[in-house]
Structure formats: C-alpha cells, structure tokens
Amino acid sequence: MTTLLVIAKAPVPGRAKTRLTPPYSPGQAALLAEAALADSLAAVADAPVRRRVLVLDGAPGRWLPRGFEVVAQCAGSLDVRLAAAFALCAGPAVLIGMDTPQVTPALLAPVLARDAWRACDAWFGPAVDGGFWALGFAVPEPELVRGVPMSRPDTGALQRKRLVDAGLTVRDLPVLRDVDTAQDALAVATEAPHTRFAKALARLPLGGGDAR
C-alpha cells in the first residue's frame, strides 16, 4: 500500500505563508495557511490508503484529522527535509505539501490506482511556478531529492531530470498552482470555490487588520 505524506508548517502567524504578507496581515496569512492545510489533509484523509503521515514543522492543532501519524520535520533546507520524509517509508510513497488546497482524492487517484506502479518508478506533479506539488517513488530514494535546488523557477525541471537521469520511469500528474502570493490565492480560490481555503479567503478584506 502506498503511503501518503504531507509536509507542512504549522499555521502560526509570522511563520506560515509569509509571502501573503502584505497585502494580508500575519494573522490573516496564518488563517489562510490553516485552511489550505485542512483542505490538503482532508484530501489525504479521504484517499484509500492505510498510512497517512504528516511531516510537521511545529505543533499539531485542531485542524489535524484523525488517522495521521505526526512526525517532526528535521532541520535543514527543503531538499533535506523532503529526503528525510521519504526515508520514513519502505514501500511506495507519495508526498504533497500544504500549498495546493485544490487537491482532491480524484487528483491523487492515479498514484493510488491498482496499476499505479506498474512500469512506473516515480510520479511527478508539476506546479505553475516551476516547482512541483507532488512527488512519489515506488521505492523511496531520498538521495534523488537531496541536493536539488528548491524555490526556483527551474526546481521542477531539475527534480524531474534527476529522476530521469537515474533511469526511473516517470509519470506525470496534472499541473497545479501553489498558493504563494495573493495573486495565487485569488486564482486558486476561483478555481476551487468549494474549499475551506476559498471560503476563508472570501471572509478576509485585503489589507484588513489582524484576524486573530
């Protein structure tokens, strides 16, 4: 059975979704981060897997549903933390972040299908900003993540090339937009108006006072 991993930062004002500030206040950005995290966890909770792991920077809160193992993130750069997350798994594993609240069980279905790993070594979910929103291995290989430059327009291309250069057969998931900026937030909320994230955003005036 495939393990689903979510790597996330606890939605604390001043630490979560800081690129939303401005126009949103730190408290508002934290509320949006909590909603995005809750949407991401709900999608994983509804997926047909036995093992769900939250790799967390910070402390769990009311947003954490039942059925998740919680593991503290290690120290280090993002590539190091992603590699450490994959090292928690012995079998097929797929990792997503908290930046795509529009993710659904249907979007994750290809990596969880009965034939997901047939003639396939890795799954890759590209992001609009040039990064990636999902990464999966039939057999986790942390060394194929460690050392990839993160938070760059070519991060996704470099990560996928690392997989292909290692001889892995890679399948692709749909392109999704990460929520990093206010523009991203509006675009994702428009695309997925049913989400907690969209509803939280709708309650926040741009440039308003701290929501907490």
UniProtKB/TrEMBL annotation:
The lineage of its organism: Bacteria, Bacillati, Actinomycetota, Actinomycetes, Kitasatosporales. It comes from the Bacteria. This is DUF2064 domain-containing protein. InterPro entries: Nucleotide-diphossugar_trans, Trfase_1_rSAM/seldom-assoc. Transmembrane segments: none annotated.
